Amino acid sequence: MTRFIFLCSILIIGASAQPWVPEPQTQQDWMPWNWMERYQTNVNNTLINGPNINLLFYGDSITEGWDYTGRQIWDTVYAPFGAANYGIGGDATQHVLWRSMNGETENLAPKLCVLKIGTNNVGWYPERDIARGISAIVAELRGRLPTTKILLLGILPRINAEETERVEQINAMVSILDNGNTVRFLNMRDAFYMGNGQFYPGLYSPDLLHLETMGYAKWRETMEPLFLEMWNSEK
Fold it and tell me: What SUPFAM superfamilies does the entry give (predicted)?
């Protein structure tokens, strides 16, 4: 079912706006979730709990998975920071960009935002265009959340060697957004990918896209040094 949903979602994405042009996700009959309801839940959370949101996770289904597959780690590690998870399954860069411009970030001032987005664009747009979409989100978040530091995560290795090579081209392009202070970039490739189309066992679900619990544990472990450095920095 997960694989079917993913394939359907990228078919829809393939006909949508450019990666840097904001647009809401289109609700499809095959979606087992209501996208607009999830987006509105995030907006409501911002309105009600905004002052208490000190850590913001932004992204697609892989980020959303912290609420499910990675829940135990989330509750133990990130919830105490005052964390909110604004990952929505199926989202591409243009959808996250639209959400960031339409209520989800209104009057927020988290100390840190963890952004991981772009995998749902891969294969449907040129790598340079996807990098442009990711860059647009970073610029929008910097403008709307001027006191917030952004930890930009590279797109994770996915599916096979060919797809992973595309991902690495995108990651190389967006890595230049790292300014050593307010925006930092982290590529977690080596923690998940052995090379030659081989992925470390136990980290991915069978679709080689989404993560198992061990994958979320590896994400936390790999991100932790830079995460804590940014969180504890007073600059």
Answer: SGNH hydrolase (SSF52266)
Q: Kindly report, residue by residue over 171-207, the tens digit of the pLDDT.
A: 999 999 999 999 999 999 999 999 999 999 999 999 9
205 has catalytic annotation: no
Q: Does 233 participate in catalysis according to the annotation?
A: no
- Which is catalytic among the residues 91, 95, 135, 210? 210
Q: How far apart are CA 65 and CA 87, in angstroms?
A: 8
CB-count exposure of residue 81 (10 Å: 0-12, 13-18, 19+): middle
Q: According to CATH, what is the number of the domain 2-232?
A: 3.40.50.1110
For this structure, is 16 an active site residue? Answer: no
Domain boundaries, the chain: 2-232
Question: Taking the model in full, what pTM does it have?
Answer: 0.93
